[in-house]
Amino acid sequence: MRYLAGVDLGTSGTKTVLFDEDGHAVASALKEYPMYQPQNGWAEQDPNDWYQAAIETIRKVMTESGVDKDDVVGLGISGQMHGLVMLDQDDNVLRRSIIWCDQRTAAECVEIERRVGGRQRLVEITANPALTGFTASKILWVRNHEPDIFAKCTKIMLPKDYVRYMLTGDFATDVSDASGMQLLDVKNRCWSNEILKKLEIDPALLGKMYESCEATGHIGKKCAELTGLSEKCIVVGGAGDNAAAAVGTGVVKENTAFTTLGTSGVVFAHTDKLHIDPKGRVQTFCCAVPGAWHVMAVTQGAGLSLKWFRDNFCQDIKEQAKNEDVDAYSIMDKMAEKVPIGANKLLYLPYLMGERTPHLDPDCRGVFFGLSAMHDKAALIRSVEEGVIYSQRDGYEILKGMGIDVSDMAACGGGGTSKLWRQMMADTYNCPVKTVQNKEGPALGAAILAGVGAGVYGSVQEGCKKVISCNPSQSPIPENVKEYEKYYQMYKQLYPVLKPLYKNLADL
DSSP string spanning 201-251? Predict the structure, then answer.
């Protein structure tokens, strides 16, 4: 039996799962690490935390599984997108990584569109407008505000590609993750010489481009010793977190879609044709399937909203969960289930880290609307969960408006394991929502990509067909659909009213 490792480098932690070639998980390990917020709207992480987490979790799954190292034939990495890693000539990290949810680069976004010749030209090449979350604006921010650091930079990488570099010594990236840098010609799946020239970014700073399932190299000698893997184990291009989740959910062909509720929330649709939203409300990237793309709507603070509420206001629930040896989120779900739809007329806007879809507004912030003395902790939990789903509905409607079929919908991510959240999704979208039997999502997707690169599977689609099975769907409940619709329509009215006030708040 051959085995494949999937490393999922997330925002809250890195999870490594070892699978057999039939897709069965034989061992898994998780290592968490912090996020730093030195100023309001900023978000950074230490790349060494990612590398150490990868080493530790790979070593743990190898030890616990007892699998012979020579039987692990491939490794793939799924990574949080957009983060900026800068190395000097000695491969030292120059500063903490500015990660995907950081909102400091509004001025650099204006600079990018000016340099390129306007938003329309930028969208024609990169398929997206300039966004604060993307990597290009972070590069310019460091150049503008930390010129001494920028002058020392010899390599620019994304989070998962830094871990790959440390594991293998190969300076590489893949088309799905690179799509979120805003330096890629998305149609032609290569670095854009025009963008790089106009932004004055040296192409030598960027890694070699691969498709997600292509082999980029092998585990290096030092890391083989540290992890227990063989130097023969190949490492593939891998993918951005959502592109990998698509593979791990079987969303690898036309007319398939998923919603993931992780730290961020995403409505993601596979497409064999290039679709671009001229308004830039959703993002179009190369996907992990060679020659295809995906379109996705992104909520910055989806699962992050519930985690924020749990960590700041639910210490009693966390203690209860510890004493009962259960997940705190499961207790929160049970509390929310007892609250009626609409959370007793309480609405939540999940803009804790600004927002991408559909507002493209780095200044907007979270809101509880309708809060009264009657509301208790359970009502607030329910309103947070509903507000996150309403934000996903915004993206769902945009994709439908672009002519993309999103009716074959799967749910994944940590929030996707919640039956309550999935039912909210089915009722708010008014379409069935299914899950796959394997819950590993991005890690499984990364492993399938590794399997293609190692010759275990003939294609991404073949790998998915072999290892992925779906559970029965949760169907929308007609009376719930009508009730959620009333609150969603009010939810949509809140942002336009608050938009100028958000700007005023940011300027204080």
Answer: --GGGSPEEE-TTSEEEE--HHHHHHH---TT-EEE--EEHHHHHHHHHT-
Return mean pLDDT, the chain: 96
Instruction: Report which residue type is found at 227.
Output: T
Residue 340: CB atoms within 10 Å: 10
475-498 residue pLDDT tens: 999 999 999 999 999 999 999 999
Residue 242: the pLDDT is: 87
Q: What's the pTM?
A: 0.85
Show the tokens assigned to 479.
Answer: 């009376």
Question: Which residues, 6+ apart, have CB-to-CB distance to 441 below 8 Å?
Answer: 8, 244, 245, 248, 249, 260, 412, 413, 416
Instruction: Read off the pLDDT of residues 14-34 as tens digits, 9 standing for 90 and up.
Output: 999 999 999 999 999 999 999
Classified as helix, coil or strand, 349 is strand
Return the active site residues.
241
Closest CA to 358 of 396, 386, 385: 396
Q: Within its chain, how far is the Cα of 381 from the centroid? A: 23
Q: How buried is 109 (Cβ within 10 angstroms: 0-12 exposed, 13-18 middle, 19+ buried)?
A: buried
Q: Can you read off the two tokens belonging to residue 283? A: 């993002």
CA atoms within 13 A on the CB side of 395: 30
